[in-house]
Design a protein that fits this description.
Layout lengths: L3 E4 L2 E4 L4 E7 L8 E7 L5 E10 L2 E6 L7 E6 L4 E6 L8 E8 L7 E3 L3 E6 L1
Parallel strand pairs: 2-11
Antiparallel strand pairs: 1-3, 3-8, 4-5, 4-9, 5-6, 7-8, 9-10, 9-11
Length: 121
């Protein structure tokens, strides 16, 4: 069983930055999609950003609300993917979850435990 461990959340002021990390117990080269989701108080569970690993290379996707502010990236050597969050807003306050999907066999999905991001202002 694959384990994903998230870290990097915290309390920041409006306009501040945080970097979230998701460390996998399995080589992330075996994952086809790595992503970040969030659930804010009283809001829908939503996809924030994803990075897809296909035969022709990596492709990224962002929710419109975070384009230009958030960046998803990965480091295969560290079995880790990141979410760099800049110019944070109070509406970014949420629990953030990392997710990995493998498009083979039973198409397993793996989730992290969540990390709290709180933006005050």
């Amino acid at each position: 069983q694959v384990q994903l461990v998230e870290s990097g959340g915290g309390l920041v002021q409006t306009g501040g930055s945080l970097r979230l990390s998701c460390v996998s117990s399995k080589s992330i080269s075996s994952f086809n999609v790595m992503s970040w989701y969030r659930q804010a108080p009283g809001k829908q569970f939503e996809l924030v950003a994803s990075i897809a690993n296909f035969n022709d290379g990596l492709r990224t996707n962002y929710d419109e609300s975070v384009k230009g502010r958030f960046t998803i990236s990965n480091d295969n050597a560290k079995n880790t993917w990141y979410l760099q969050m800049n110019n944070l807003k109070p509406e970014d306050t949420a629990v953030y979850y990392c997710k990995a999907v493998q498009f083979s066999g039973p198409r397993p999905e793996y989730w992290g435990q969540g990390t709290q991001v709180t933006v005050s202002g």
